[in-house]
Amino acid sequence: MRRVLFLLFIGLAGLAVLIALGSWQLRRLSWKEALLADIDSRIADAPQALPEHPDPERDRYLPVAVSGEIEGEELHVLVSVKMVGPGYRVIAPFVTDEGRRILVDRGFIPTTAKQDSRETGPMRVEGNLHWPDEIDGYTPSPDLNGNIWFARDVPAMAARLGTEPVLLIARAPTGPGITPLPVDSAGIPNTHLQYAITWFGLALVWAAMTSLFLWRGRARKKG
User: Fold this and answer.
1) Which of 37, 65, 124, 195 is paired with 174 by a 20 to 30 Å CA distance?
2) Rounded mean pLDDT of 5-17?
3) What's the chain's average pLDDT?
4) Letter string b/e over residues 209-218, b meaning 16 or more CB atoms within 10 A of that residue's CB
5) For the domain bounded by 62-182, which CATH number is listed?
């Protein structure tokens, strides 16, 4: 009897923990979906003037419009676009009408267009401010001789091009041959549903195994 009670206690305790973890992930799912909806709404807002002192947390995804002149020097960030293939993000310095220098992510070019000349000069750029978190311990250092970067390292790129550490990602074309890669929430991970399914699945297996152990113990006792 003690053995049966012990198995029952372990089974119920484990089941309660697994169900609680699954329920917590469902609550996290609701929170993440609300957060993503808020981000999408913020991204699509009407553009405003560039803040005087942009903050990476407060102003992330802030829609901004600037007028000025885009310069010809470029940094190329290696990327791959679904259904298109490998290419580069073109990062260029932009001098606003107020004399500020910022970075503009103009968008995507195929690898074959790396050496092509691109439209520069006066223009208006609309987009969203962003400070991408793309660097980890496995990210290679940029190939400065070949002008190939492997992540958008805003401080390093700003130092290289002599701009503020501010990146504006264009959401409309800034010249022929460049496809904008605007900011969206698709790159923000939302795996809470998968985790919830995993925990509830484990709870089901745990309940089945507990029932099996109890049944076998009872059968053995009868035998």
Assistant:
1) 37
2) 82
3) 89
4) ebeebeeeee
5) 2.40.50
Higher pLDDT, 3 or 76: 76
Residue 73 has a pLDDT of 95
Residue 85 pairs in a beta bridge with 81
85 contact partners, CB below 8 Å, separation of at least 6: 110
Q: What pTM did the predictor assign?
A: 0.74
* Closest to 65 in 3D by CA, of 110, 123, 140: 123
Parallel, antiparallel or unpaired: strands 101-110 and 167-170:
parallel
**Domain boundaries along the sequence of the chain:** 2-39+191-222, 62-182
Output the CA–CA distances (angstroms, integers) from residue 23 to 12, 27, 34, 37, in the order listed. 16, 6, 17, 21
Calculate the dihedral angle through the C-alpha atoms of 82, 83, 88, 94, rounding to the nearest 10 degrees.
Answer: -80
Tens of pLDDT, residues 188-199:
677 888 888 999
